């Protein structure tokens, strides 16, 4: 051969080898890059929260010597403010460029000049003030940016008195009060009086048909016995519920929703060792209540169905957070997450998330913090040390609800009767508790894949066995390409037909379809035995072998028609004419029109061509000398396929099943359109499911970029990526072992 031609061929081979190797490496790098891209977006979910000391305010002696009752900061972390006993509200910027300090004298509701006895936070920058002469008022503080003609920004503030309630005639001056105001109901004041008495004042508002507003005031003392000295109490924001904690560990609740008619709903011993309840606060949503005690315990309680008597709802301790080293003095709930900030007697500030009971961080100061305020955005906290300094800490906790237990553990959500795996990322209310368990989505993925593969694998493999070794070669040239063309049908078309045509049709013919599924194996076995008998008796009059299925197809069509017709009759006789209602009434199983049976047909239809094609190639490539030797030894065609061909082709068949499995587990459009997308966990075939891939498609348009839901969806994608990678790797290992065992593939 010409040496020049040989060099040319070698050069081309080298170039081809380099191109193929480079392309393969590039594909590997792309896959690895995609993995790290997805992981980089999901990783911040598990970063540790951070905080930093941002600013320190030095208050003048005339302010803090008069007694600081409360401190706080605005949502932009630009100003700090304090209430003192002299009824002064002082604003001071953390940054001197933002403005100058300003002191405002609060007006007494009756025009006098008495001092303040206590100040309690009552909502988002709402404060309940107790005046020394028995008056109570609710003050609302709001901050808003302002811009002048040169677009220079300043932060303005506004203080509004929401309501004021006069002292109750004939009662002693209260030690502390709390006031709430509801636009529809009116104002509610609860006062702790000397002698361990609790006074309730309700100013009930009622709007007439003419648009006038009538007010009626109710004054009363709670007559129910209080088993211990009251240590703390709190009202919900509407003033409908009152919670009281005592120094001997009792937790009590009154229903104040009916004006002038309080009802005690709870009276329980919260702690068996009778430790004192030292702090109490409502949680975002106004359903749960956080309770702190003198031993550093912090627990969360809400109503749960089933009490000791076995009926109704009772207040129950649901979450127990990490114990502190000192008594819990104050609890501040976040206004936008299910998180709590607590101040302990040793001056430490703690951040915790309720649902997953995760301790987020702790802040310690050189001087112990005596009073603190939380920003409404949960991004900062200001602490007062009692010696003239107020310190601002900026806090970064972007994903407090994210944890391994959130995604893979069974959590006890608010208003649930027991822990559960739940996915429900959003709702119509701002105080909604996100439920981000991935377990229902993983289960739904497995369920959809199982039913789809249950339909596709037997048909694909048995069909491949028939076409490769039992069907006539001329007919095989028509059947195999036709099945392969099925694989080119777009997923969205299959999902569309399954959702709008198959699902409604299946609902009215379900009994017939189930009957057909049971009778089809009987028909196949009977037809095969009959064919073999006739072939043996009339060998010259029977069609050529390999066309048997042409006789079976009309019989199958006839059986389908008969099953559907008979199914309608059986549905009338046995199920009162409606099988789906019978399922609900007799088996307590609701029928979802877009269910697992629909998915079995639709997903199976999409996966079947892939499995069939690869399995058929593997079976066809078994050496003909093996089949010829088997037939020569007297084995039948079926025995040859079953005992010789199938084991030899098992590596290829296994690869076909795994490729189909990977196709099914990552399918999106079919499961998105043909299921109800309900993230439930049961194997009932007449119920739907929600898969990981479909969940990404459903939730992605509504997920704010960088938010917890957004990153959780990337975590779902990462999980799908890893699952498919592990399964394919394991499948390759098994395939290589089978190949080594059977010596070919």
Q: Mind explaining what this structure looks like?
A:
The protein has 745 residues and is α+β, with helices and mostly antiparallel strands. It has a domain at 439-507 and 590-742: MetI-like (MetI-like fold), CATH 1.10.3720.10. Helix content is 39%, strand content 27%. It contains 16 helices and 30 strands. A four-stranded antiparallel sheet has the order 1-28-27-26, with no helix packed on it. A hairpin with a 4-residue loop joins strand 7 and strand 8. Helix 1 packs across helix 16 and helix 4 (439-469) packs antiparallel against helix 13 (650-665). It is elongated. The two termini are 35 Å apart. The model has no long low-confidence stretch (mean pLDDT 87).
Total DSSP E strands: 30
Q: From the structure provided, what is the oligomeric state, counting identical versus distinct chains? A: single chain
Largest sheet: 4 strands, antiparallel
Within the largest sheet, what's the order of strands? 1-28-27-26
SSE blueprint and pairings:
Layout: H1 3-42, E1 50-58, H2 61-64, E2 68-73, E3 79-84, E4 88-93, E5 102-105, E6 116-123, E7 126-131, E8 136-147, E9 153-165, E10 176-182, E11 186-193, E12 197-207, E13 213-221, E14 230-235, E15 241-246, E16 250-255, E17 263-269, E18 277-282, E19 289-293, E20 298-305, E21 313-320, E22 328-333, E23 339-344, E24 349-353, E25 359-363, E26 371-374, E27 380-384, E28 389-396, H3 404-408, E29 423-424, E30 435-436, H4 439-469, H5 473-486, H6 491-508, H7 510-537, H8 548-574, H9 579-587, H10 596-620, H11 624-632, H12 637-648, H13 650-665, H14 669-674, H15 692-699, H16 708-742
Antiparallel strand pairs: 1-28, 2-3, 3-4, 4-5, 6-7, 7-8, 8-9, 10-11, 11-12, 12-13, 14-15, 15-16, 16-17, 18-19, 19-20, 20-21, 22-23, 23-24, 24-25, 26-27, 27-28, 29-30
Helix pairs in contact: 1-16, 4-10, 4-13, 5-10, 6-10, 7-8, 10-13, 11-12, 13-16, 15-16
């Amino acid at each position: 051969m010409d040496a020049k031609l040989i060099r040319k061929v070698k050069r081309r081979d080298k170039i081809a080898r380099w191109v193929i190797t480079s392309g393969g490496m590039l594909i590997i790098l792309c896959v690895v890059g995609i993995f790290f891209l997805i992981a980089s977006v999901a990783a911040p979910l598990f970063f540790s929260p951070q905080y930093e000391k941002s600013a320190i305010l030095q208050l003048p002696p005339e302010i803090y010597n008069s007694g600081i009752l409360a401190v706080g900061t605005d949502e932009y972390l630009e100003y700090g403010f304090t209430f003192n006993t002299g009824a002064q509200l002082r604003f001071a910027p953390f940054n001197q460029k933002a403005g100058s300090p300003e002191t405002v004298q609060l007006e007494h509701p009756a025009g006098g000049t008495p001092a303040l006895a206590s100040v309690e936070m009552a909502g988002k920058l709402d404060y309940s003030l107790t005046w020394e002469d028995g008056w109570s008022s609710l003050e609302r503080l709001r901050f808003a940016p302002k811009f002048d003609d040169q677009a220079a920004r300043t932060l303005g503030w506004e203080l509004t008195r929401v309501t004021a309630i006069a002292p109750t005639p004939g009662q002693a001056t209260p030690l502390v009060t709390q006031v709430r105001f509801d636009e529809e109901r009116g104002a509610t004041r609860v006062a702790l009086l000397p002698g361990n008495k609790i006074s309730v004042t309700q100013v009930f508002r009622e709007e007439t048909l003419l648009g006038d507003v009538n007010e009626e005031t109710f004054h009363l003392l709670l007559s129910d016995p209080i088993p211990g000295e009251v240590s703390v109490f709190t009202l919900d924001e509407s003033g409908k519920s009152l919670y009281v904690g005592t120094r001997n560990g009792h937790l009590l609740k009154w229903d104040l929703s009916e004006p002038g008619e309080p009802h005690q709903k709870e009276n329980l011993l919260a702690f068996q060792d009778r430790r004192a309840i030292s702090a109490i606060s409502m949680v975002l949503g106004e359903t749960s209540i956080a309770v702190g005690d003198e031993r550093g315990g912090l627990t969360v309680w809400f109503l749960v169905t089933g009490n000791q008597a076995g009926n109704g709802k009772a207040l129950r301790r649901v979450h127990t957070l990490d114990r502190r080293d000192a008594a819990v003095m104050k609890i501040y709930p976040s206004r936008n997450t299910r998180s709590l900030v607590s101040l302990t007697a040793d001056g430490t500030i703690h951040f915790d998330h309720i649902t997953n009971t995760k301790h987020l961080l702790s802040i310690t100061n050189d001087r112990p913090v005596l009073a603190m305020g939380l920003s409404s955005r949960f991004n900062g906290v200001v602490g007062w040390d009692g010696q003239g300094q107020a310190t601002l800490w900026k806090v970064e906790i972007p994903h407090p609800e994210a944890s391994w237990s959130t995604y893979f553990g069974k959590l006890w959500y608010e208003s649930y009767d027991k822990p559960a795996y739940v996915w429900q990322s959003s709702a119509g209310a701002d105080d909604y508790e996100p439920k981000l368990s991935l377990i229902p989505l993983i289960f739904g993925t497995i369920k959809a894949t199982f039913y789809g593969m249950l339909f596709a694998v037997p048909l694909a493999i048995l069909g491949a066995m028939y076409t490769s070794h039992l069907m006539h070669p001329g007919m095989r040239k028509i059947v195999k390409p036709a099945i392969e063309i099925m694989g080119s049908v777009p997923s969205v078309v299959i999902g569309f037909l399954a959702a709008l045509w198959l699902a409604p049709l299946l609902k009215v013919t379900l009994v017939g379809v189930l009957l057909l599924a049971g009778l089809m194996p009987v028909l196949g076995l009977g037809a095969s035995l009959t064919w073999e008998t006739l072939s043996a008796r009339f060998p010259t009059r029977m069609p050529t072998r390999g066309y048997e299925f042409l006789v079976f197809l009309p019989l199958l069509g006839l059986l389908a028609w008969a099953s559907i017709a008979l199914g309608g009759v059986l549905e009338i006789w046995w199920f009162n004419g409606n099988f789906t209602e019978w399922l609900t009434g007799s088996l307590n199983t609701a029928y979802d029109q877009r269910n697992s049976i629909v998915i079995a047909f639709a997903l199976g239809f999409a996966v079947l061509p892939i499995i069939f094609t690869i399995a058929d190639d593997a079976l066809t490539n078994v050496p003909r000398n093996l089949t010829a030797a088997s037939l020569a030894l007297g084995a039948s065609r079926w025995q040859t396929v079953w005992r010789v061909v199938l084991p030899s082709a098992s590596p290829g068949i296994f690869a076909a099943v795994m490729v189909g499995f990977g196709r099914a587990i990552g399918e999106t459009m079919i499961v998105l359109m043909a299921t109800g997308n309900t993230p439930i966990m049961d194997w009932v075939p007449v119920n739907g499911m929600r898969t990981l891939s479909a969940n990404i498609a459903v939730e992605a348009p509504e997920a704010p970029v960088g938010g917890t839901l957004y990153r959780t969806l990337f975590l779902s994608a990462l999980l799908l990526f890893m699952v498919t990678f592990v399964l394919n790797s394991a499948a390759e290992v098994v395939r290589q072992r089978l190949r080594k065992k059977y010596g070919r593939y």
